[in-house]
Amino acid sequence: MGGVRKLAVPFVVPGPCGVAIRDRLKHLTPQDEKVLRAVGEHQGALASGDLKARCADGLEHSADTWAARKRELTALSSSRIAGAITKATHDQWALARRCQAAHIQNLAAGIKTLRHRLSLPIGTPGTKRAAGGYQSKGEWFRKSRRLAALKARHAAAVADWQAGRVRVVRGGKRLLNTRHHLTQAQLTEDKWRQLWEAERWFIAADGESGKRFGNETIRVTPDGEVSIKLPFPLAHLANAGHGRYVLTSTVAFAHRGAEWADRIEAHRAVAYRIHLDTERGRWYLTASWQRPAVKTIPLAAACARGMIGVDTNADHFAAYHLDVHGNPIGDPRRFPYDLSGTTAHRDAQIRHALTRLINWAMRVGVAAIGIEDLDFTTEKTREKHGRRKRFRQLISGIPTGKLKARLVSMAAEHGLSMVAVDPAYTSMWGAQHWQKPLATPRRKMSRHDAAGIAIGRRALGHPVRRRTAPPPHDRSDRAGHRTVQAGPGHRGREGTRPPTTDRPPGGPSPSGKRKREPSASKTARDAPSTQQWVQDSLTHTG
């Protein structure tokens, strides 16, 4: 098949290496909330100043500048709080740097596409692999102006990258811009101010192995008692010894509570974060820790009990169960979800659909789920798809990153492995080779269901098509048997069956039925291939 790109090899996705659980801080007194707000405001101001200093350092950052910043913060808080703030600052700067690189790459892709389409004559039709020319002179002119604008933005982004300049907003750029659109957001200025201040607070502490209960700054005992080591300027608010404030609320982690308790009783590191949900007026405590890196199982072991191929779509998962040989079993399954509404609603829909998918995988007894290694980063540009706004919205709405992260973490808790495959041609080849053969009057096969079979077969290491092309018709012994066959050890395999030699000619067959004796050969074509044919030169006429 000419023009088909080389497919990537399937691989087992590594499992999660981090755990985070959350519980609500209930029944807080007004004094508790006052202390939490004071700590958040004080440490948030320190974090904002440290981030400003880190951005000013740019590429000149070194261990000496980091140590100087930490010494300044230590005098205003404590050594552990200063370490947590500087670590968060470095992570935020590194994230902004990666986003800046992705932005430059996206601009470069848009410039390349615009140059290609502008170089084509007006009205040139496009292909599946490349867009065609523009439809009119007016559109061509507008796109030439957009090319100039993208070039200017690309040059500015590259200059910032080379100089080490990044632009970071503590609290979020979206929330900052909402300040200018309060009516559309249905917010008052006071309400927006509460959201803005809460997002910029900093009440977090990294864990320390060997310390009491795994954290000295925010300590949680096995009984659920929460205490905070106050910064030096707020030490007068302490209600316990050594400058600590003990909250009246207690926590009890229902999810992974036993694992969390084992860690703190062994004094292993646990990081904590306290934040306020301003919409609900509730305070929450989040505990997180790292797990040791677990080596993934081999691909052959993951495929030993078959596979479930999952095709990800904008509103549902299309899944199909396959045996170890790549044969579909049963009927296709669909797990719908609705990605409209708020972020919390979309996240809940994804979790519910994944839960149903994993429960079905456990019932059928497979050890792995095959998914596509999707990445629509280069597919969302308006330069590539032009007027196809609905298609751009469609692919932008598929939560590829969050989906893979959630599916891997949720499947790992049930002992399931994830096998990622190349997404190329799965829908096209699945519909070509599987949609029509499996469709019956009582079973409707869609293109997405067939794509699930293609994904599962690719994860198992089989080709998507059911069988290879048959041998040539002119000489059936030239090409030999089909290459895609089950091995000799598999029962019910396809292939040429050996002749029966344990019965007399004309005798009964193993099935008990008498078969007619083969007739003698009457033509040269039917003669055995071992017979030597010699042409008489005297009868030759030429």
Description:
The chain has 542 residues and is of the alpha+beta class. It is 41% helix and 14% strand. The protein contains 15 helices and 13 strands. The protein starts with 10 loop residues before the first strand and ends in an 82-residue tail after the last helix.
Main sheet: strand order? 1-13-12-9-10-11
- Low-pLDDT regions: 500-506, 521-542
Number of strands: 13
Average of the residue pLDDT scores: 83
Helix-strand topology string: EEHHHHHHHEEEEHEEHEEEHEHHHEHH
- Approximately how much helix is present in the residues? 40-55%
Characterize the largest beta sheet: strand count, sense, and whether it forms a barrel: 6 strands, mixed
Structural class: alpha+beta
Q: Which word captures the global form?
A: globular
Approximate strand percentage: 5-15%
Number of helices: 15
Key terms:
542 residues, alpha+beta, six-stranded mixed sheet, four-stranded antiparallel sheet, 15 helices, globular, disordered C terminus
Secondary-structure blueprint of this entry?
Blueprint (H helix, E strand, L loop, with lengths): L10 E2 L5 E8 L4 H28 L5 H14 L2 H41 L17 H27 L9 H6 L3 H4 L3 H12 L3 E2 L12 E3 L4 E5 L14 E7 L6 H9 L5 E7 L4 E9 L8 H4 L4 E6 L3 E7 L5 E9 L6 H22 L3 E5 L9 H4 L3 H9 L2 H13 L4 E5 L4 H13 L8 H14 L82
Parallel strand pairs: 9-12, 12-13
Antiparallel strand pairs: 1-13, 2-8, 3-7, 4-5, 5-6, 7-8, 9-10, 10-11
Helix pairs in contact: 1-2, 1-3, 2-3, 3-4, 10-13, 14-15
